[in-house]
Write a structure and sequence with these properties.
407 residues; Alpha-Beta Plaits; 4-stranded mixed sheet; 12% strand; RT_dom; magnesium
Length: 407
């Protein structure tokens, strides 16, 4: 375990490993515009040169800056990135081209999961987010044509709504049993060697393969210590969703080979069959396939064969009708109620406008996601519940009216 230190620049001076807690940068780095960063031009005749091409890097930079995000383990912020690149990009680019670049460890951040427990995100440094985004933009066109039409997560032009509609279509076609596959700690258990073998089928440039492996193996920094990683791909970096799709595409191919109806959104996969008996056989055989071929494990406590209207997928439920209708799952309603209550508790002595400013984006985002619901009653009941809560808040502030435009 340990942290990375400074490296020598071409001029023999120490170049900080993209930051440290106090990265050496020009005094006006936060104000340095992206246009002032000089990307060295190169003939895009190999994959790494395409990754490092000025046009690709500019696009990656815009994406990283627009996404904002917190600093990684080195402390470098998005606002400081342009100044850092202006000073150090030539030496960084040389190390990337020669295969000598070493990523910084990711910063571990724990966030609560909706069903309890925590999910650990690995936040890369801002510089590594830029490099990963540049890689992603060149790797995606290589792998997209290989992916299944029934895979929807983190892919261009695809969405959770499309996955939900496809699940409903399978049920409407008579496949009225769902085999729900819950992969146990998927992102923590991705086998690096297997994933790299799959990557090598499409990626010939050894420098790109080496760099991706180094991102997989980059340590996780928590409490000032770096733990080395032998398996898994941390959630939080631009590359992680693509790498997970590359691995799980092998599951998609197996399901297609068997002729199954299925839907997959990232690591959330359902297979639709005509009977419980067929579902139990599919579940058992897929458990063997995942363990033997992909070195992954099913969580048997959460994986099940069930009627679709007695469960949920991506926050939605279905009705029992022959042509099922989509509805909001009860668990989704409960999570929103808990979120609203937590905002009310956080308000404490703040003004009502503070609460409304924070509540509105939550409600708008929730309403937008659940716009496919064909049942209005839960939404109407939720609206009444929120308004009653706000009235109680108003009574506590001495006001007696809720502005009509507030929510």
């Amino acid at each position: 375990m340990g942290c990375r230190t400074a490296e020598a620049s071409p001029q023999g001076k120490a170049v900080p490993r993209h930051g440290g807690r106090n990265p050496r940068m020009p005094a006006d780095s936060a104000q340095t515009p992206m246009a002032s960063v000089t990307w060295t031009k190169a003939e895009p005749n190999t994959l790494m040169e395409r990754v490092l091409s000025p046009a690709n890097l500019r696009r990656a930079y815009r994406r990283v800056v627009n996404n904002r995000g917190a600093p990684g383990a080195d402390g470098l912020s998005v606002d400081e990135l342009a100044g850092y690149l202006k000073q150090y990009w030539p030496s960084l680019r040389e190390r990337l081209q020669t295969g000598e670049y070493q990523p910084y460890g990711v910063r571990a951040v724990n966030i609560p999961k909706p069903d309890g427990g925590v999910r650990t995100l690995g936040i890369p440094s801002v510089l590594d987010r830029l490099i990963q985004q540049a890689l992603l933009q060149q790797l995606t066109p290589l792998f997209e044509p290989l992916f299944s039409d029934f895979s929807y997560g983190f892919r261009p032009g695809r969405s959770a709504h499309q996955a939900i509609e496809m699940a409903r279509a399978h049920v409407a076609a008579g496949y009225r049993w769902s085999v729900e596959l819950d992969l146990e700690k998927f992102f923590d258990r991705v086998d690096h060697d297997l994933l790299m073998d799959l990557l090598a089928r499409q990626v010939e440039d050894p420098r790109v393969r080496r760099l991706v492996r180094r991102y997989l193996e980059a340590g996780v920094m928590a409490g000032g210590l770096v733990s080395l990683r032998r398996e898994g791909t941390p959630q939080g970096g631009p590359l992680s969703p693509l790498l997970s799709n590359i691995l799980l595409n092998e599951l998609d191919r197996e399901l297609s080979r068997r002729g199954h109806r299925f839907v997959r959104y990232a690591d959330d996969a359902n297979v639709y069959v005509r009977s419980r008996q067929a579902g139990e056989r599919v579940l058992a055989s897929l458990e063997r396939f995942l363990e033997q071929r992909l070195r992954l494990r099913l969580n048997r406590a959460k994986s099940q064969v069930i009627r679709p209207w007695r469960s949920s997928y991506l926050g939605y439920g279905m009705t029992v009708h022959r042509q099922p209708k989509l509805r909001i799952a009860g668990s989704s309603l409960q999570r929103l109620r808990e979120r609203v209550k937590s905002l009310l508790r956080a308000r404490r002595g703040s003004q009502l406008t503070w609460l409304i400013e924070r509540l509105n984006p939550v409600l708008r985002g929730w309403s937008s996601y659940f716009k496919l619901s064909q049942s209005k009653r839960p939404v109407e009941e939720l609206d009444g519940w929120v308004r009653r809560l706000l009235r109680n808040v108003l009574c506590g502030t001495g006001n007696d009216r809720l502005p009509g435009h507030a929510i």
